[in-house]
Amino acid sequence: MKNLVKLFVLLCLPVLAVSVRAQDAGNQDAGGGPAVVRQQARNPEPEPRPYERVITKDAKTQTGIFTIHQVGARYFYEIPASELNKDFLWVSLIAKTTLGVGYGGQADGNHVVRWERHGNHVLLRSVSYEMVADDSLPVSTAVHAANNDTILVSFPIEAFGKDDAPVIDISRMFTSEIPEFSPRARLRARAFDPNRSFIERVAAFPTNIEVEASQTFTSPIDTTGGGGAGPAPAPGGGRGQPGMRPGSATVLMHYSMVKLPENPMMPRLFDDRVGYFSIQQEDFGRDEHRAPKRTYIVRWRLEKKDPSAAMSEPVKPIVYYVDPATPLKWRPWIKRAIEDWQPAFEAAGFKNAIIAKDPPSPQEDPTWSAEDTRNSVIRWLPSTTENAVGPNIHDPRTGEILNADIQLYQNVMNLARDWYFVQVGPLDPRAQKLPLSDDLMGRLIEYVVAHEVGHTLGFQHNMKSSSLYPVEKVRDAKWLHEMGHVATLMDYSRFNYVAQPEDHVAPEDLIPRIGPYDKWATAWGYKPIPGAKTADDEKKTLGEWAREQDKTPWLRFSTDHANGSDPGENTEAVGDADAVYATGMGLKNLHRVMDMLVVATTRAGDPYDDLEEVYGRVLGQWVLEMNHVAVVVGGIDSQDKHAEQQGPQFTPVSRERQMAAVKFLNQNAFQTPAFLIRPEISRRFEPSGVMDRIRTSQMSVLNRLMNNQRLDRLVEIEAEDGAKSYHPAEFLADVRQGIWSELAAPSVKIDAYRRNLQRGYIELVSEKINAHTGGQDDERALLRNELKTLSGEVARALPRTADAESKAHLEDVRDSIARALDPKFAPSETEAAGGRGGGRGTSSVFEADPESLGCWPDYKVEVIHH
What is the pLDDT of residues 259-278, one digit of tens each? Predict the structure, then answer.
């Protein structure tokens, strides 16, 4: 698990053996940091005892991959000699947590482990597969020497069972703290208390062992990070959940130990043109001049019952269970979401490859557990977090997915509701009054869950997909019914806000579903390749399949190394093949939403909470759509290609498209969006604040438009492409003229909203030219020139101001520019040099040598990114 705080187990190795000993209550370092497990030597270490003296007649025994004995409060593993030195996956999961730190069912890390006998000890080792070499090759000796397996715990052998099977007492492994298995970092706890920790349940199965243990931790008084020692926050706590509350907390930990397949799945080589998650190994055993990184896709093992059939059921289907905690009315929709992927697997030649099930009742199977790693579960979490997560657990040797527990947070329904209303409310009569009907909400849950199922099948996000259909098709009702508005469920292309009421699109076609990319990519990753015995044998065929993207653009995947430069890889976009057109259509729908807002969100007797929330979502949607246009500037269209494909991977966006984008933003983003300013709406939930909301929204767009990476690309593209490029000086001048268009009018009058934006512009440019780091010298010079030009325009406009507010604003702007160009400048110096009216003082500053202006101030504009 990333970012786990590493605690060190202190191992004392006397003559014979080491035993795990619980930490004493006072056994923590004086500095208040995390306490560690202490190992107490027995001197001398006793020899193994007769079996019947350890496993007495009172023992309760279970038979599985190991034989488990319970004698009183102690638990013993009897490990068959045949299971020593075999690979197991150890999964730590928080089954029940303390309030404020995540939710039950969240994973807390996994390790490949191996049990080894070492004299009269059994060692539990952590095994890494990041460096590999075939054991038959001489270089494997060096690889093992550089990648030694860590000893996690050492157990004295208590007795020997049948066929020399070592018997060990594993009780303390779960009632003391083993750093690699501890949830302390996630909890942000300070100490572990063994006196309040005990084993709840141990269950043996044919391929796995499941253990549940209640573990108690204490936390420092300050959980906000402002004081007190202890580990840094672990990932997953969530905003507003910094750690345990003061005092103590008991969590229920679930540990699954699953035997990894002795016959590993044949891995399939990763190709960055197709969007799979992957594992990576450095294979030092290959006959190449440098150790190649071998990358394999992450996928389930699917094998045909009838290998000769074009369509066959799998030997073992992929099964997902619906959490018993899920509200009854949503369960059918979640089952539909799981089995929505069946057509994708049919494209790979598998029938009924993925199946949804209800879990067995306790009467049907008392051993069934949602925490059992053999069971993949769609979990319903009582959380106010508006999210859902689709992780998987896989074999690090081959990428075979072994388990997938999807976490569905209850309040994701609220997010889906708001998205649907804001984006397509004018297109679906069912969405024009909140709350939404159960049928519509069920369909939205189905969409959310199906997306997460895709992740657990091995698929990454594919943000490019929303830009690969011809934009006119996104309004074509026939096309939408057959193809959807996006070619994959794995894009963040939510609901079709480009379609218009006059297009008469069926409401069911406004929501993403399994698309052509999903079917194609599933076939690419899962379809068997006859005759292939190794991953290398498949490479030629996989390459041929990947090149189908050349003739069918919507089969393409996001370009991994585009580094955010491709304007077709927007998140939350629809139809961004032409972002100007798509956003223009989206704005029409946002106008309609504003007209619907009060009626849709208010109910007699209720406060205006929904109205305020959804109004904020409308502003957020406006920012999103404007930013889809902003990224066209300095954009580079991309297609991931390999050496056998013709043409470049990267092509700069045309000058004409970039200029059209800036023109659109000047007209729609930087001109005040009056349709969002509705006192009859905003004054129902706040006395004031709309001006700040509009400024924040506009500045978010401006900040995106003028970010350093965009300017860097404009400078470089001009250097390479010359006259046909959109020159950075042209771009900056176009933006300036749009934001300051009032300065060219015969009578200069600037309203409060535009004054707000113009001040933000000055602050942003000032921050860029005075920052100590970031940006190129060319950018700084161009931006300084923009401020000089603007100052001259302000000076010429001042005599033409039509009102006192505009005059005061421009005088303040002039002084702000002077301070930006010379941080040591004071307004009184300007007045002394030439007064506020003539601008002579500022002109003398402009003529100063930039190198003489002293240190650059370091401050930042705070911009909210939605």
Answer: 999 999 999 999 999 999 99
